[in-house]
Structures are given as C-alpha cells and as structure tokens.
Amino acid sequence: MTDFMVHLPGNFRHVYQFANGLSQYRCVEASLAMAGQIAYPTRYANPTQLMSQIYTQYVGPDVSSDTRGTTKEQAIEWLHSQNIGYVDMESMLGNLDELHNEIQAQNRQNVPQLITIGDESFLHDARSGHTLHNWADALNHGAHTMLRVGYSDIMGYGLYEEPAAAPNFSQPVAIPWQNFLDGHIVGCIAIMPHGVPTPPGGFSFQHGTWPLPKPVFDQAKAESTLAAAMAALASLQHDLDVLKTEV
How far apart are CA 4 and CA 84, in angstroms? Predict the structure, then answer.
C-alpha cells in the first residue's frame, strides 16, 4: 500500500474553520488559506486571520450569526487576486472516473485540489469509520469544501486537510472516494504549487509532466558529435585534395 502525499511546506499550518467562535461557514475560506500556503509558503504569516479576511471581503462581517458561504466564483476571484495558478475542473464533473484519474495524477505531481461535496452528511473517516460531521444528516446538511493533498493507491481513500477537523489533528483525514460519489461533487479546482505556472488549456497530468522537463545539455555527447563531424569533414577534404592531384 502506498500513500501519495502532496509536498507541504515545512511551515504549513492547518486552518480550522471554527476558530475564534466566529462564522461557522468558512470552509471555503479555510481551504483557500491552506492552498495559499502551498502556492506561497512565506507570504501568509497568519493563515487563520487570512481565512477571516477572505470571509469579510466576499461574504460580510465574520460573526457567529452569519450563515452565508463563499461562492466558487468568489474563490476564483481571490485566487486571481493573489496570482495563484489554478485549473477549474468543472468540465470533468460529468465523468467522475476521468476526474478521479486526473486528480490522482495531479497529486502525484504535488498538485492539491479544492474539492466541494454537495452533501456533507456522507463524509466518513476511512480509518475509524466514524461520521465526520455529526451535525449533518439527511434533513440537515450542506455543501463542504476541503483541500485534497493525496490518496491511497489501494485503500480507495483520498487524504484531506479538512477544515472542520479538530485543530490539533496530526495528519490529513482519510475519506473514501465513494463518499464523494454518494454526496455529489459540485466543484474541483486544482491549485498550482509554489513556482509552478498554470498549464495550458487541455493539459492532462495523466499523460504528461508539468512543468515540461527542461532539455538536458549533454556536453560529452555534443563534443563527441562535433569531433565526429570534424573528422568526417577532414576526410572529405582529403578526398577532394586527392582528386585535384589526379586531374
């Protein structure tokens, strides 16, 4: 069994959406604050404060009585404002097998994703089997956004920096992919890690490596090729000189 994990900066900090007793609906902002740390490891000194700032900017006062959330369009606007590269994978939501293959390939290349499930009541911890959001049930549930940072190639789960998880948890939460199929994926945005530009439209991480590997200059091979060319030229010149003396 192998777990593939996106490389997280050494100073990476999990962002807890319920921190400070303010709005309880900051999962998108918390996920953005964590994604920002991967894109720019030294830019955001206080990720929890950043979460609140994003909420205030796009939703309104960050207070416990506010039950509104951030839209996908607002999340993308924030990524634009921070010059964080991303790939909106909405076109793949109609083919979830293809989406799954693509995000696994991205994870193997250190690319995480913001992923949103439409019904959070389906979320379970794959290791313990426990329900993740005990406040959510068939009658009382909503959408939820997390930062996917890896997966298991055998056990069928993804690894998530889960904003609603206890702030002192020591490792990403393992969540079965089937939970997302049952709860319906409504959004998925790949986030480019530090120093990696956004790939061109249509690029597939399943069929290529990004960024494109730089060509390696093999000096020894170049010198050998040049020497062979010079020897061939000298031989040709010799043959020409012989022909001139025979004419």
Answer: 23
The amino acid that residue 196 corresponds to is: V
- Partners of 43 in the β-ladder: none
CA angle 206-149-211, nearest 5°? 45
What is the Cα gyration radius of the chain? 26
> Using an 8 Å Cβ cutoff, are 116 and 186 in contact?
yes
| pLDDT per residue as tens digits for the range 139-172 | 667 999 999 999 999 999 999 999 999 876 668 9
Kind plus residue range of the DSSP H or E element containing 160: strand 157-161
Preceding amide of 9 cis, omega within 30:
no
Extract the tokens encoding 221.
């091979």
Q: Using an 8 Å Cβ cutoff, are 85 and 196 in contact?
A: yes
What DSSP element (H or E) covers 173? Answer: strand 173-176
pLDDT digit string, tens, across residues 22-70: 999 999 999 999 999 999 999 999 999 999 999 999 999 999 888 888 8
What are phi and psi for residue 17, nearest 5 degrees?
-65, -20
Residue carrying the six token digits 């010059």 = 83
Closest by CA to 147, choosing from 1, 10, 13, is 13
